[in-house]
C-alpha cells in the first residue's frame, strides 16, 4: 500500500457470519426449523439450490445436515467473541435466525428464549466494545412459512416479517444500531431458494416467481427501514447486495452492451429500488421481453420511496465476465453467478475467480451511482486448511487474498469512495452456504469439524489471526 493511503480513523474492522451457518442447536431454545436446516450437506446442495422442485423434506438416510450442529456457537459464543475481541474487532456482523424468535414465523407472540439468547450475545459483544451489525434475514426463512405459504412468493410474508422486525427493534433498541435487511437480495433470481424461500415451480416460471418475491421483499425492507428509524432514531439500516462488477469479454460493442445489461440487472436493479426508492426504467423492457408481470398493490411504491436505506453493504468474492454468444463449455466455466472464464484471473479451489481490482472497480461504480456510505460486509477465500503436526495452520494463501483486497479498498478510498467498514466473511470457520461443507474454510479461527461429521469443535488461531490483529491495530497500515 502506498504511504498516503489511509483508512478513516473510525473505520469499522471486523468479521461476518450468519446464524444458520454457525449457531447449531437447531431445535434448542424453542427454535423452529428453517430453510438451512433442511438443506443437505456436500456438493449435492448446489443442485438443490439451482434446480426447481425441491420438496423441503429431509432424508437422513441419504444425506447429512451440517447446519443442525454447525460449529455450536449457540453454546460457545462467549469463547468465540473473546477471540474476536482478541483480534481487536470493532464490529461483528451476525444474523438473527427468524425461527428462533418466531419458530413457525406466523405466531402472534415471540419466543422469549430466542430473544434472550441474542440479548446475551449483544451484551457479550458490548463487554468488549464490539458493535453488532445485524442481518435480519440471511437465508433463514422459517420452514413453516415455506411449506404453508410458499415463501416470499406469498404477500402474507410481509405481514409476518413486519411483526418480526418490530419485536427485534423494540427489544434490542439500546443494543444494536447497525442493521441490514435482506442478505444478498439480488441473488434471488439465480437462487430463489436461499433468499426467497421457495423452489421455483419450473424453469419457465422461475423469473416471474422470483421478481414477484423480490417485490414483496422490497416492500418488507422499506417497512423495516421506516420502523427502524422510528423505534431506534440513531439506527443505520442498510441493504445488502451480492456485487460482481461485470466486464465485457472483449471490445466488441455487442459484448460490451450485453455486459452492461447483465450488470444493470444483477448489480443495480435491487440497489436502485432500495437506495433510490424507485424501480429503474431499464427493468421495464426486461419485464416486457420476458413476460414478467408484477402485482404491485396500492401504496407499495410509496412505501418503497419512503423506506430507502441509509447505506449500502456488499458481499464481494468475484467479478463476472460476459459474452453475448457463449459456447456451452464457455458458459459452464468460472463462477457461481455465471459468465465466462476470464483469461486474466486465477480461481479458488471452488472455481471462484480472484480479482482484487474488481473490488476497487465495484466500490467506484457504487459510489458513482448512489453517493451513499458503503460497507464491504463479506469477502474472503474459501480454502482447504491443513493443521501441521505442531498444531499451527499456515494459511498464507488467505493472508495474500485478504491483503490484496484490503489494498484495493485503500485505493478506492483514495479514489474518493466513502467506505465505512469491512467485515471479512466467515471470521471463524463455519458451514459453507452453497455446498454445505466444513472443508471450505474462510476463518481466522480454525474449528476442528469435518465433512464426515467428526471433530472436537476445538478452536485454534490460524496464522491469519495474528496478521488480521495487526491489520486492525495499525488501522490498515500493516498489511
Ligand atoms: C455469500 C453468503 O453468498 O457467500 C454467505 O451471504 C456465504 O452466507 C458466502 O457463506 C460464501 O459462500 P459459500 O458458499 O462459500 O459459503
Automatic annotation (TrEMBL):
A matching Pfam family: Glyco_hydro_1
A GO term from the CC aspect: cytosol
InterPro entries xrefs: GH, GH_1_N_CS, Glyco_hydro_1
Molecular function via GO: beta-glucosidase activity
Any GO BP annotation: carbohydrate catabolic process
Alphabetical keyword list: Glycosidase, Hydrolase
Family: Belongs to the glycosyl hydrolase 1 family.
Protein name: 6-phospho-beta-glucosidase
Organism phylogeny: Bacteria, Bacillati, Bacillota, Bacilli, Bacillales
